[in-house]
Design a protein that fits this description.
It is built from 2 helices and no strands. By secondary structure, it is an all-alpha fold. The chain has one domain.
C-alpha cells in the first residue's frame, strides 16, 4: 500500500468516524442523562483506531481479489 493513498484514506475514515461518533455520543448523553455533552477522549480514540484499521483492511481485501 502506498503511503499517500493510506494517508488519504486515513483522513477520510478519521473524519467520518469522528463526526458520527460525536453525534452518537451527544445524542446518547442527551437522551440518557438529560444533558448534551461530548466525550472527546473516546471519540478521538475510536476515530484513530478505525482510521488506521479500515484502510489496512481495505487494502488487504482488495489485494486478495
Amino acid at each position: 500500500m502506498k503511503v499517500k493513498k493510506f494517508l488519504i484514506q486515513f483522513v477520510i475514515y478519521f473524519s467520518l468516524v469522528f463526526v458520527v461518533n460525536a453525534i452518537v455520543i451527544y445524542l446518547w448523553n442527551l437522551v440518557r442523562h438529560g444533558e448534551g455533552a461530548f466525550d472527546w477522549q473516546s471519540t478521538f480514540t475510536l476515530a484513530i483506531i478505525l482510521g488506521i484499521i479500515l484502510p489496512i483492511h481495505r487494502a488487504m481485501t482488495s489485494k486478495e481479489k
